[in-house]
Amino acid sequence: MGLTDSLADYFGFAKHDTDLRTELLAGLTTFLAMSYIVVVNPTILANAIQISGYTQDQVVQMVAVVTLIASAVAMFVMAFYANRPFGLAPGLGLNAFFAFTVVLGLGIPWQTALAAVVTEGVIFIVLTAVGAREYVIKLFPEPVKFAVGTGIGLFLAIIGLQAMGIVVNDDATLVTLGNIASNPVAMLATVGLFVTLALYARDVTGSIIIGILGTTVIGVLATLAGLVSPGTLIGGWVQSGGFNANALPAAQYDITPLVGAFLSGFSNVEPFGFALIVFTFFFVDFFDTAGTLVGVGQSGDFLDEDGNLPDADKPLMADAVGTTLGGILGTSTVTTYVESATGVEEGGRTGMTALTVALLFLVSLVFVPLAAVIPQYASHIALVVVAVLMLGNVTEVDWSDITNSVPAALTIIIMPFTYSIAYGIAAGIISYPIVKAATGDADDVSPGQWILAILFVIYFVVRTGGILQNAV
Questions:
Q1: Which of 167, 259, 310, 449 has its CA 20 to 30 A from that of 64?
Q2: Whole-model pTM?
Q3: GO CC annotations (predicted)?
Q4: Contact (Cβ atoms closer than 8 angstroms) between residue 350 and residue 12
């Protein structure tokens, strides 16, 4: 039996109506869509992590190495244990909470913040092992489950459009249209987006990859030809007329100052404040992951007739292991990525997709100084394309029933406007029993759904009421 046959047999290609080529292509697509985190995560965490004797550039590269290793291990678990096509990495948003709220805002040592991440990961492993996390996900009201995919689509859209310069900040209206015609990044990204959509409409295999790589190549060529100033479309290593290897920083692979730093973080911990930090990490990670699994699972037709993801405990375990290992190595919470939808849309259906992403993350260790080769505006074309596709999930909601439409609509609206999957799910879960009770259908709400709604209310009080700040 050859390698291809062995992989087909192990991952069940025939059962999932896929093949090795499709899985590899899906893995590459997901990798390219997720690759920005290798640059963004170290940049964010380096604001909070200061190590004596090391420059910020060295810390950035240390965190990049840790990001790649923790992500790869989590995806190995996803591939071989869960056999699902989901990618994992330190969560965008969770890393910002780690750096700007916990460490810089509350003055908590970064080692203690890592201790909170490890604690959260261990709790997740235990809860997943006994099936508690899967049980909680099954408590999601049906309209919330069906709305998550559309909410994630809008969330992906705003992330992608902002990275591409098409949507920009505005003091008067919060967001507005960017100056596309005068901004080379927005101009190239817009062309790349429409070309990618056209290729996808033509059913061209690998259309998303072609769009990302094609946009990047055009950026390189435009810089080499002197049409734009160096650093506008591509990093400073590309210059007019040639390449400048000296612009790349020296590689820093020694991560020993980060590994195990969480242990010292347990000393002199204020119990109540530490518990609240763990609580916040726990809630955001739990429901970000749950929402991603349900939303991406809906896109891949993985959900059963009740809107549940079968054997959800297995991908949840990959998330829990990744979070624990990430905290031990020196990075913030690892979570399942909504960008996994890009690979699913390319046909990824098994753990072979996740394995491909994991191997590409490990290969990227060789190119840590080149982490920004694929510019963000190019990789995020994939997010907008997938967002367009995920909006179709909204048709699953019974909009004629007010008890379905209210929680579904709030789930969809809150996600992009608060930049959080978890907050959108929270809005839907809290509103569901309230609307049911108001229409005289309180009997349709299970005790677990009431408890879940109350817990979310408590979470919002802790998160937005200043309690966390006053406790540390």
A1: 167
A2: 0.76
A3: plasma membrane
A4: yes
